[in-house]
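Alpha-galacturonidase (Nitratireductor thuwali), 464 aa
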Amino acid sequence: MHDFEDQKSLAVAYIGGGSLNWATKLMGDIAQDGTLVVDMRLYDIDFAAAERNARLGRRIAEAGRGKPARYTAHERIEDALDGADVVVISILPGTLETMASDIALPERYGIRQSVGDTVGPGGFVRAMRSIPMLAEIAQSIRACCPDAYVCNLTNPMSALTGTLYAVFPGIKAWGECHEVTKLRHIVAWLANRKAGSVSYSFRDVEVNVLGINHFTFVDRAVVGGVDMLQDYLDFARTHRASGWRATPIDPDNEQERCFLDHNMVKFDLASRFGIAAAAGDRHLAEFVPQTWYLDRNEEFGFGLTPVDYRMRERDEKRRVAAELDAGAPLPPLDVSEEALVAEIKALAGGAPHVTNVNLPNRGQLSGFAEGIVVETNARFSAGGIQPLHSGRLPEALELIVKPHAERQTALVAAVLEGRRDDLFPLFLGDPLVAPLGPDKAQDLFGQMVAATAEFLPEALKRAG
């Protein structure tokens, strides 16, 4: 990697470069940072979308705070990856229409899913179609830029980060997720209330993270040198039945309604296990039996996000992107809450940065087997990415978390090795699926595989 201090450009390959969410957010953060000199190569199976984002990236760079950024679109992944210092992966595994079947088919069998992209039947089948995609990307990285640092933003995070390492064991990859930020916001609010002034933001909250992606927990939350965990646990118990939001929900805001979260699942889990649940309620609810929360989502104040909303949101983003591409004024550039720019700068020789990421377990999470992808803190620096020892989950919670991690690891191996007969037992083992029993679960699995067959390798199309 080029030295950050000498201000040479960093070659960043963006796989999924036509993205209307993560790619443009990263462009804005680079422009607002004003120190990184970036040569970003955008690759997407939709080349026109990558070209549009390249044009948009140039406009964003010109509106930034100083250092230039170069944006180019590439029709071949090899050209985008050639000699890259950093690779970012944010792809949509299949289509939103395919994701709609991930939600709708299980619903016919009484299975409710609030997100459907990580665990449960939707997350499982999404992994089946996305693991081969990530395997191809990993092979291309090994061929074109084996020394690059690789950030995966695509869900299911644990399975896909594990895929990168299974295909290319020498890869320097991490999975990036912003869900823990939700807890950090609450802790910052509590610290400000305690101080009697707005003195802290979520960036001032240092947390010790344990768990797996979207089922993360925190046993230390330090603000201004003071551990606020007990304050948080007390607050969670007090608001366990009522919930809490920093601001009231706007009933006219469809996005707020579709992504509704009153933190009641977080507070309930904290009260049950004596440790702070960190991810958003919609994700947390899918890791435990449906009777805990999903059957009572209105009672627990969270939404089941409909895919048709995601489709409307996609269409609106396309409309806005087309207007910007036609010359409409750029909206004001805001710094996002994502950590990627700080991580890249640290790897390139800037100030070290500690944050929570997904990596194969090398002892950072006690009680979990070596190699299983877990989410804990890691230190980013010019020396690379060093996972930090986080400790161990409470025993009762570990008994819930560990089977998910083991199932995700086994799923990756079964898909990569084309062992379709091993897939259904793993599918049936998920706590949302198990209550169906083998016969109904087998019927559901067959229907879901058929619905996503166009994205599956031949060896898996007859699974189930």
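Residues 181-305 form one domain. The mean pLDDT is 95. ok done for today
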